[in-house]
Design brief:
alpha+beta, five-stranded antiparallel sheet
Length: 151
């Protein structure tokens, strides 16, 4: 039963039924049905390389942000500070294509918050330093400027 247009009355709905079972299997192939088509495996994500880390480190050094360190994890480059065992996440750059990267900024709980920014690697690092200075602030030298409970 289905409701009427007004939504208050019910009426019977027509159905063609389940139909007849098809005895033949449909094979993957071309239109002529000659040979099956081999589907390509899905592309794997592009990994971040060691030279990407060098690029980010050089830019951070030129911006006098020596308190930040860079590490690679899969297709992402993580920028963090603090102790090795309990780092403070600042931002991460995820490789989107061969040249373009996506920017994620860590929130106060250390969870990644995506941004709409997508650009070249060096341009994103400079963007964060220029437009989001609180993201790259030295938390350990300015504990009064943060709500981090560890300070």
């Amino acid at each position: 039963m289905a409701s009427s247009v007004a939504g208050t009355d019910t009426r019977a709905t027509r159905s063609a039924g389940r139909g007849v079972a098809t005895p033949a299997r449909i094979a993957a192939g071309n239109a002529a049905g000659d040979e099956p088509v081999a589907f390509a495996a899905p592309m794997s994500k592009l990994e971040a390389d060691e030279f990407h880390i060098d690029i980010v480190e050089d830019i951070l050094e030129s911006l006098e942000l020596q308190h930040l360190r860079v590490r690679k994890r899969g297709s992402a480059i993580m920028i963090e500070s603090g102790p090795q065992r309990n780092p403070i996440k600042h931002f991460r750059l995820q490789r989107d294509t061969a040249q373009y990267w996506l920017l994620d900024i860590a929130d106060h709980r250390g969870r990644w918050d995506p941004t709409p920014h997508r650009d070249l690697l060096g341009d994103l690092v400079r963007l964060v330093a220029q437009d989001f200075p609180w993201v790259v602030a030295d938390v350990f030298r300015n504990p009064e400027r943060t709500s981090d409970p560890r300070n």
